[in-house]
Write a structure and sequence with these properties.
alpha+beta; D-Maltodextrin-Binding Protein, domain 2; 2 domains; 279 residues
């Protein structure tokens, strides 16, 4: 059972804008997802179809965000960087995190949108993030200094504060990770890490969406998460949500986690034990 408590929250204007864009893009994703299974019997087509769905989702998100926040800059998985007249704000977008799941008709994928802001000439920092699962209608979101929340559409639309797991015994803990894709280095190291964690914990899950792994860790469904080689759009929103939920978020290899893409997330009690097994 996840650690989520009932509460109320007032959405800020920027959070309303980001959530609206995610929900708008999800309509096409849901329709296209319904068509994917019909393409599985064909020898050609599914991959191209999903690529178009990915791009269409990104276009919808950017179109809506540009309308409501004209001038903001963008960094998106498909379209790359768009420099706006306002260089102090930048949206970071993954229009379909869990593409392989989507391609194979597996209902576990998400839209991820984060916002960076530069204040007084300092380096940009994450100030808002949303991760939306269209299949479950779960909207995970956070703003800097305001906590992390979940709006579950099946529960009447009430926002509930996210509370991460409090387990402090490694053997009782459940972790999530990602496996390096074909063609990427690191398989041997990953197998060693997996052996170290699986051999001493309650188990490891590999669900195929880093954004949802982070959101689920923030919600207490997992006790920790680690993965290497992720892109900034994979984790930006999830990093803020996890931090605002009270979790420790670090780079496995040191430095800025958004730059390295090597991430470890868990509570203070389990951090050292997990880091020792994956570093």
């Amino acid at each position: 059972m996840s650690n989520i408590t009932e509460t109320t929250s007032h959405l800020s204007p920027i959070m309303r804008v980001m959530q609206f864009a995610a929900r708008k893009a999800s309509r096409n994703l849901l329709r296209d997802f319904g068509e994917v299974e019909h393409l599985q019997v064909a020898r050609k087509g599914p991959a191209d179809f999903v690529s178009k769905a990915d791009k269409k989702s990104e276009e919808t998100i950017i179109e809506n965000l540009q309308r409501d926040r004209p001038g903001y800059s963008f960094l998106a998985e498909e379209g790359g960087e768009i420099i706006g007249s306002d260089k102090t704000h930048r949206f970071i977008i993954d229009p379909l995190d869990g593409t392989t799941n989507f391609l194979h008709g597996i209902p576990h994928f998400a839209i991820s949108i984060a916002l960076e802001r530069e204040i007084d000439g300092n380096p940009k920092e994450l100030v808002a993030g949303v991760i939306y699962n269209p299949i479950t209608d779960e909207m995970f979101f956070a703003e800097k200094g305001k906590g992390a929340f979940l709006n579950d559409g099946t529960r009447g639309g009430a926002d509930r504060r996210l509370r991460p797991g409090k387990r402090d015994i490694f053997q009782d803990s459940l972790f999530a990770t990602g496996i390096p894709f074909l063609g990427r280095p690191g398989h041997a190291k990953f197998l060693k890490e997996l052996h170290q964690v699986m051999g001493h914990s309650s188990g490891v899950r590999r669900m195929g969406s880093a954004a949802l792994d982070l959101a689920w860790t923030a919600a207490g469904r997992y006790d920790g998460f680690w993965e290497r080689g992720l892109a900034v759009w994979d984790i930006a929103a999830g990093v803020l949500i996890a931090q605002e939920a009270g979790l420790k978020v670090e780079s496995v290899t040191g430095g800025d986690v958004l730059e390295t893409g090597d991430i470890i997330v868990t509570n203070e009690a389990l951090y050292k034990q997990l880091m020792e097994r994956v570093a």
